[in-house]
Fold these 2 entries.
Entry 1:
Amino acid sequence: MAGTVILGAQWGDEGKGKITDLMADRMDLVARFAGGNNAGHTVVCGDDEFKLHLMPCGILYPHITTVIGNGVVINPRVLLEEMDGLQSRGISCANLKISCNAHLVMPYHLAFDQIGEQSLGSAKLGTTHRGIGPAYADKADRMGMRVQDLLDEKIFKAKLEVSLERKNAVLTKAFGQDPFSVEEILTEYMAYAERLAPHIEDTSLLIHDALRDGRKVLFEGAQGTLLDLDHGTYPFVTSSSPTIGGVFTGTGVGPRDIEKIIGVAKAYVTRVGYGPFPTEQENEIGETMGARGVEFGTTTGRKRRCGWLDMVLLRYAVRVNSLTGIALTKLDVLSAFDRIKVCVGYSFQGKIFHELPPHQTIFHKCEPQYLELAGWNDDISEVTERDDLPEAARRYVEFVEQGAGVPVEMISVGPKRTQTIIKREEYRRPLEEGPYLYREDFEPPAGGVRD
Ligand code: GDP
Ligand code: IMO
Ligand code: MG
């Protein structure tokens, strides 16, 4: 059992990229299990900032095998652009493995994402317009194009023809749009195939073998628990399973392969896109959180909605993911406030809910019940020991721990690797400043290999 999972405990953008990068140091393999390039994971190494959309954050370490699992939907154009971008910055993508069973995002998926949002009008979801929903819909409809189809032009063409017959009929007849051409897509995707072919593998077997050999595997989540297709705030969700179940279906390992499940949660809450958000602060408080936390979407640049921490939702995330611990991020952002509110229940028509209400209407209309805690105001962005936090900040963390029922194993106080409070002895490498990137003179840690 050497598997560790990092997943989002809120509505995405919790800082999974930073935490994955931090933990990847002592891993041998890092695998993404869900989502597509709707994700945007930021990693700051020294003066370098990386924004990764499809690529697992482990790519920044040369000793790591990086896997894009079968649960991910891949836009090959975006993936290749990301690989080129990384390679131009000196980062090798030679260790990237792509699941042969992952599904492809096709040009018509982007068109249908746009159409879907337009036709919903004011009820739209606020998707990232990356074709994610339509790609997963085709997968469930058994109409999807898979990565392995890239390896056989005849099969790819035959499947594409069947798919486009249906898609083009809807596009032209129902929406008056131009049809897609089989030949154009075929030419485009066969060019991608040539470049991606060396990376395509049975990644379930690869991960299995790594675990069997006692190597350490990290499963990197995208999105967050409340965006989960089943467990999130449906229909204002994404179309995959960012919760723990997605690890198993999205990579092909089993529950006994997992030892630790870390939920990443901000010390407050943000959300991009539409949908209910009981603790949202559409006022100066939310503006301050947004400004201090630089809350703009990594993928779309949209302003993130901000609000107080919601312990009902955090407890829910602990429960549905069976979390073993929490990584609490952006605690530094709360230094702006004299008093800090935390939601501990909802009230609706005289009834108090301590759990996520079973009916969406209640969740939409409920009034959050807050506890108010003391703030600290001090700059905590350089604190590296929990004991050195101001007393009020320590109390806040303890409050979260107590409420969630699992330990806060990491506290993040800034975007950089060094701005983290962790049990140092757990880490192979001191958290000194500076990129841990591909270099000619790089010596991999014990057990690692150079490519
Ligand atoms: P992800 O999608 O969960 O990986 O999160 P994003 O990268 O989309 O958004 C998190 C943002 O917060 C990024 O810009 C990070 O650099 C930044 N960040 C992460 N942790 C901290 C922290 O503790 N404090 C501050 N101020 N910023 C942080
Ligand atoms: P990371 O991995 C935040 C949101 C979108 C929209 C909804 C559906 O960076 O945390 P989609 O394009 O998936 O069909 O959009 O889901 N969403 C995210 N919000 N972080 C993300 O990823 C997200 N991925 C999707 O804003 O509300
Ligand atoms: Mg993000």
Entry 2:
Amino acid sequence: MTEPALDFVIAALEKIRESSDHSPRASRTMLRRLQLADFVAVSLPAAAELRTGGRQTSASPSGPRLQGASNKAQLLEPIRERVCACKKCAHLASSRTQTVFGVGNPDADLMFIGEAPGVDEDQQGEPFVGRAGQLLTKIIKAMNFARGDVYIANVLKCRPDTPSGTFGNRPPTPVEMQTCRPYLVEQIEIIQPKVLVALGAVAVEGLLGMRGTMRELRGRWHAYNGIPLMITYHPAYLLRNQAPSEKRKVWEDMLQVLERLEQPITERQRNYFL
Ligand code: URA
Ligand code: SF4
């Protein structure tokens, strides 16, 4: 944003403050974005001067470096820090090994949303690294992406606790998901992917607050805040139900995603069975 544009925004906000009973409100993310926009605007002339070999009297050393860096990556950092320190669910904050924020490319066109970290994710601090995660990685690769090309996050950032001495994971409760959801909302707001994929009915419930069966939800386009949303089976379901028909359904859903992203689809991909 150029400086006159920023002045214009500030003047408009001041006018709203003076003429209305309610002070203007801006989300933390928007304020951070404005701050960064200002910083980029200030550093741009310096960068231009460096490129043209002009006088460098006003060149700030951080200017040109910032140009190449991803704004979105910087915007995600303060959220990651808040998640890291979060104790909104006291029982999860005390049982977790660590929080699991999200992984991948902050500039991704495609974002996958799961439900919550399991035991492997809790240990490694990264979403989808266990058995279900390996299957998700395989699906991503079959789509001709690398794991680092897309962004992967969960509705819940802490592993749902289980009684000590027991094995396995439990699904997050609706209350836990509603408590943690704002972090995911902020992640999506910053990343602004072209397509979202929700994995399983629990992730859908966490994201949309809507309960439904996968039979009625999957395989067609929905929307979250104007972003096209594809709903498909959770990879853990495919591990439980090995029928080729179920794998094929997930792959059909991913072909729809590739089409929406205007990615070329090979004949081999069309005929592929996971
Ligand atoms: N299942 C999920 O929903 N998310 C993970 O990160 C791992 C397994
Ligand atoms: Fe905080 Fe989310 Fe963990 Fe609850 S699950 S403590 S809201 S980070």
